[in-house]
Specification:
The complex is a heterodimer of chains A (about 110) and B (about 120). Chain A has strands spanning about 5, 10-15, 20-25, 35-40, 45-50, 55-60, 60-65, 70-75, 85-90, 100, 105-110. With about 110 residues, chain A is an all-beta fold. In chain A, the strands form two sheets. In chain A, strands 2, 4, 5, 9, 10 and 11 form a six-stranded mixed sheet that branches. With about 120 residues, chain B is mostly beta strands. Chain B has strands at about 5, 10-15, 20-25, 30-35, 45-50, 55, 65-70, 75-80, 90-95, 105, 110-115. In chain B, the strands form two sheets. In chain B, strands 2, 4, 5, 6, 9, 10 and 11 form a seven-stranded mixed sheet that branches. In chain B, strands 1-3-8-7 form a four-stranded antiparallel sheet, with no helix packed on it. Chain B is globular. The chains are: A mainly beta (about 110), B mainly beta (about 120).
């Protein structure tokens, strides 16, 4: 069964705008939630991650918002740039097991 | 440090043929993963190794897929016989820790398999 559900499937944003990608999970044992970024022809690379003891984590223009009661988390990309155009995957894992379940991905296109 | 190396980058085979993919993880990484990424979907774990032992192969279609990690370094994933639905990118990843999610993975660039 799909452990992590991600939306939207694709997203078009103007340069300078805010990109928002959402994920939901079912397994309450999950307690580590990373986001991966993938460019064409490359493997996914870790972007940012959060644990459920905080509701928000920010690294530069990238912010994860986490809602434990709703079992949802989201990635916000502020001041989106054409170089951010890529596919973004949310994932979930138990912290003590380095084994990730990935969402279906969101293809982001930032228009100049 | 050198990244995760995978070969070949691309492979086209006919259905019912066999194919093998190779992965060389980052030096010293004891944990190795094979993921299948079908077009438009997220990566799906096929198998996880810790050194040369299998930790999890619950999602590996064992009637046609096999994997090994002899000597706990390089790994090979094989499909025999291939089906059309096996068309995907096969990603190899490695990590220095299997018991800490914050150590994350380093992925290779993958092998794109097309079965015709």
């Amino acid at each position: 069964q799909q452990q992590v559900k991600q939306s939207p499937q694709s997203l078009i944003v103007q340069k300078g705008g805010i990109s928002i990608i959402n994920c939901a999970y079912e397994n309450t044992a999950f307690d580590y939630f990373p986001w991966y970024q993938q460019f064409p022809g490359k493997g996914p690379a870790l972007l940012i991650a959060i644990r459920p003891d905080v509701s928000e984590k920010k690294e530069g223009r990238f912010t994860i918002s986490f809602n434990k009661s709703a079992k949802q988390f989201s990635l916000h990309i502020m001041d989106s740039q054409p170089g951010d155009s890529a596919t973004y995957f949310c994932a979930a894992s138990r912290y003590n097991f380095n084994k990730f379940y990935f969402g279906s991905g969101t293809k982001l296109n930032v228009k100049p | 440090e050198a990244g995760v190396a995978q070969s070949p980058r691309y492979k086209i085979i006919e259905k019912r043929q066999s194919v093998a993919f190779w992965c060389n993880p980052i030096s010293g990484h004891a944990t190795l993963y094979w993921y299948q990424q079908i077009l438009g979907q997220g990566p799906k774990l096929l198998i996880q190794f810790q050194n040369n032992g299998v930790v999890d192969d619950s999602q590996l279609p064992k009637d046609r897929f096999s994997a090994e990690r002899l000597k706990g370094v390089d790994s090979t994933l094989k499909i025999q016989p291939a089906k059309l639905e096996d068309s995907a990118v096969y990603l190899c990843a490695s990590s220095s820790r299997a018991d800490r999610a914050d150590y994350g993975y380093t992925f290779g660039s993958g092998t794109r398999l097309t079965v015709v």
